[in-house]
Structure prediction request, 196 residues.
Amino acid sequence: MLMTSTAFAADSLPVPLSSKNPDQPLTIIQDHTATGKQLNRPLYIDEFFVAANQGAPTLIIDYAATRATDERGESSVDINLECSPACKIPLNKSVMTIRTEFMGEDALRVDGVAQHLWLTRGIYAFPLNAGTQVWGSLTTGEATHMQTQAIRMRWVYGTPDELRFPGQKTRSDLFLKISGSVLFLLALGWWLLRRN
Prediction:
């Protein structure tokens, strides 16, 4: 049995969502949130058909957790997507890996209770043809050094803006810092060699 949007109130995790291009607003296909005991079972993707002239549907997953310690925490969300006719889902779009070093912090209400949360977002565009039937589920993996509080799933047409939560670092931020450090060391070494 598929869970409906009334089973998972969207206001249970109020995280903003906006279009990258303000002239082309997002069209929301579905919006579901799981909290509390609902996290012990899959969050089902309601069956839908990819609309013509809308572009590829995009899956947006917002994940919220609390932490008791400063130890590095990890978790995952398995994306179980089914299509008819059959579609190929790339491996990198079948699981959302969550690590605290790439999460931001914010105070939000989950089920009406204000909490200090660690947050992250995954955005996955699926190149599916118009008329493709889509369904499936999301399943949260076991979390270490943090406790999952909520997961919100939204399917949209359009290009969402990649929201960064306060303090959030991305993998590209880390890559830029490492690249900058390496370039600085190379320039310093070259300068020292030329000086001698």
